Inverse folding.
């Protein structure tokens, strides 16, 4: 599932390509992927331009010149492709926004969605999300205040979107490995020093992953050399049984709260 780095990569690359270009057609192949009748969706979207693209947690917000917002959550299995019909991957699309010769294809929106809201409605839909871990206001002290008193396990807490927004399975494991902390630790057992390491790793891992285009490998457009560049740099995620990049010990893969978790028992304590 896309997390902060993947959605930041999409945001930056799409801003270079579709901003201020009229949407000449909106095609909905799966009505369940949107939240209004197809005719209403097309009427409010076609002829409009996207004047800004923002990210909040794992969502993208496409701000239209009408004041409406297209709120995207790709969820598990969702991704996007921008290009011509002949360049499009041979995959089923649920929604397509055409900008003329090229279109933005929303693929795999079986669990995800592209909802159309007014600006205030979109804001209300995101109101329960926790703080953004890369915001300057999210300091080490704020991290302690946010999770320090919880009597829960570290990884499920980090991936709870109402606690901290935008971190999911992949980067929770990567952050814990970088900090040298087991993701299965109880938060109440963390020392002040470990909170400091966790905070530093949260920023450094997410920023590095953004720089390398996240871990999802499907290119956004033909010739896209950025998207998915972090996949080969993942130290533990989806590498169960492989040797640890630090000590060579086999990495552990387990299930925690119905999710996979990966870690090194020698490098993480």
């Amino acid at each position: 599932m896309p997390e902060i780095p993947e959605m930041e990569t999409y945001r930056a690359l799409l801003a270079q390509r579709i901003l201020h270009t009229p949407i000449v057609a909106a095609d909905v192949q799966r009505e369940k992927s949107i939240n209004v009748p197809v005719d209403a969706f097309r009427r409010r979207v076609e002829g409009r331009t996207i004047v800004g693209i923002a990210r909040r947690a794992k969502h993208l917000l496409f701000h239209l010149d009408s004041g409406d917002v297209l709120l995207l959550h790709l969820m598990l299995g969702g991704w996007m492709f921008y290009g011509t019909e002949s360049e499009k991957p041979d995959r089923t699309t649920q929604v397509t926004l055409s900008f003329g010769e090229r279109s933005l294809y929303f693929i795999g929106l079986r669990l995800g969605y592209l909802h159309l809201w007014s600006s205030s409605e979109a804001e209300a839909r995101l109101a329960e999300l926790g703080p953004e871990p890369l915001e300057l206001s999210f300091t080490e002290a704020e991290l302690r205040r946010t999770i320090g008193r919880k009597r829960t396990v570290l990884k499920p807490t980090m991936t709870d979107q109402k606690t901290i927004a935008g971190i999911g399975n992949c980067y929770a494991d990567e952050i814990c490995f970088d900090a040298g902390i087991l993701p299965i630790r109880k938060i109440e057992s963390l020392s002040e020093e470990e909170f400091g390491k966790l905070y530093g790793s949260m920023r450094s891992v997410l920023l590095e992953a953004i720089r390398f285009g996240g871990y999802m490998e499907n290119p956004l457009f033909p010739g896209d050399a950025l998207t998915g560049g972090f996949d080969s740099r993942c130290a533990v995620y989806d590498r169960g049984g492989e040797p640890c990049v630090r000590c060579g010990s086999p990495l552990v893969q387990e299930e925690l709260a119905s999710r996979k978790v990966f870690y090194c028992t020698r490098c993480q304590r």
